[in-house]
Description:
Radius of gyration: 11 Å
Largest sheet: none
Distance between the termini: 16 Å
Order of helices and strands: HHH
Number of strands: 0
Structural class: mainly alpha
Shape: globular
Amino acid sequence: MTELRRPKNGRIIAGVCAGIANRFGWSPTAVRLVFILSCLLPGPQFLIYIALWILVPSD
Length: 59
């Protein structure tokens, strides 16, 4: 596994989902789909996404 970083290529909004996908060896599309589906549930998904956008370094 690699370090959690937001890639410069493959970004759609901030690269958070692509960074998570790279870290765990998953497909970025699958991570984005899971994030979008999780937004249908109550919880702090957007706040976590924004926090990761700020805290996770870019490539």
